[in-house]
Design goal:
7 strands; four-stranded antiparallel β-sheet; 15 helices; three-stranded antiparallel β-sheet; alpha+beta
Length: 380
């Protein structure tokens, strides 16, 4: 065996469509090369570029997937990040609304800090002198729950990596957006700016716009899907924008959402024992309803196979995971075991019915010792 390092991403030699065309033209030649790769590297440039154009015309766009583009997107709406993050193939590193303070509108800001203070008090009263929920974690948990008040259009920033081919496809989908979704309509100014920047960076190729074969952004569901649980599964549940953004991190699973007929909101568990607090929370949610708060519930469809659902449990059944997605994952686990006819699958899933992942076959590198987190009875 011989291995050659052909290319690596570089911050000093940034790529554009001219460089990518030449590279893809070379890679396209591998499929039919009569000699070896070095012969392709030494061929006349015009021959390489001609092959690239022919490949584009034939819509054999896979060779344009070898080149990857990394972008830093600053001050983009959270929902625009979710739109991009639902497409395969990608890598993202995003500013966390769980652990960092965001920049909302005045009314959101007022309510956000109000509820941070309320949650800090509630957490301290519920879990006093707790080694796991110390002062620092109390602050972070308060922020995590207060951010449900913030709009799904709240500005965020992220590093986003995808292939040259996929970037062109997404550009095409944005340019041809038909205005049929109220939620996506709020992203139109951002979409236009995003497309203009890609053009300025010389990353858009008209011939690659012809690909995609009828595809579009996958986040917005276009039809209802039935539930089933076997080697592959499909399940529907209500969850917030915030939990959906967390779930998207499981790239081996597929997600789409639909807006509910009437607005409904998630109530953090720690509020449930006080009806007055629940009412105050829902009243404040109504005050920001026009902003589409991240605590608004939507209908989510999740699809995948049993092995990848187990991978999700290995990450989410944990004291450190967002409580809403922990509860949702456990709900799916219960439905999976109850509805699947396959006894072998039931045996695969059964270890995760005990509680946190550390009670199954997951070896935790830093055990929390948080009883309520391990037995899944925590309220924050």
């Amino acid at each position: 065996m011989d291995i050659k390092l052909i290319s690596t991403p570089s911050t000093t030699d940034l790529g554009d469509k001219d460089r990518f065309n030449k590279m893809s033209g070379t890679f396209a030649g591998v499929c039919y090369m009569p000699h070896d790769f070095d012969t392709l590297l030494s061929e006349p440039e015009q021959k390489t570029l001609k092959r690239a154009e022919m490949t584009k015309s034939n819509r054999h766009h896979s060779v344009f997937e070898h080149e990857f583009v990394t972008l830093y997107l600053e001050n983009i709406p959270k929902f625009f990040a979710m739109l991009l993050n639902n497409e395969k193939l990608y890598v993202t590193s995003e500013k966390s609304a769980r652990y960092t303070q965001m920049t909302p509108s005045p009314i959101e800001k007022e309510l956000y800090f109000k509820w941070i203070n309320k949650f800090k008090q509630l957490i301290s009263e519920k879990y006093p002198n707790n080694n796991f929920i110390d002062a620092r974690r109390t602050e972070k948990l308060a922020m995590e729950n207060a951010r449900y008040i913030l709009s799904v259009y709240t500005p965020t920033s992220m590093v986003y990596t995808t292939s040259y081919r996929q970037l062109n496809y997404m550009y095409n989908w944005l340019v041809h957006y038909d205005g049929t979704s109220t939620l996506l309509n709020g992203l139109v100014p951002t979409s236009r700016e995003f497309c203009r920047k890609l053009e300025e960076l010389n990353l858009i190729d008209d011939k690659l716009q012809e690909g995609g074969f009828g595809r579009d952004f996958s986040l917005m569901g276009k039809r209802d899907r039935e539930e089933h649980f076997g080697d592959v599964y499909s399940t529907n549940y209500e969850g917030t924008f915030a939990s959906l953004a967390q779930a998207q991190r499981h790239r081996t699973l597929s997600y789409e959402m639909q807006v509910l007929p009437e607005k409904k909101y998630y109530v953090p568990k720690i509020l449930n024992q006080d009806p007055a607090l629940v009412k105050e929370w829902l009243d404040d949610m109504d005050k920001v309803s026009l902003y589409s708060p991240q605590g608004q519930l939507v209908k989510i469809n999740e699809r995948g196979n049993v092995e990848n659902f187990i991978l999700k449990m290995k990450e989410r059944l944990c004291s450190c995971a967002q409580l809403e997605i922990v509860d949702q994952t456990r709900l799916t686990l219960g439905k999976y075991i109850f509805q699947t006819p396959d006894e072998g699958i039931k045996e695969m899933l059964e270890p995760y019915t005990k509680g946190a992942r550390c009670l199954a076959d997951f070896k935790c590198p830093s055990p929390c010792g948080f009883k309520e987190g391990i037995d899944m009875t925590r309220e924050i």
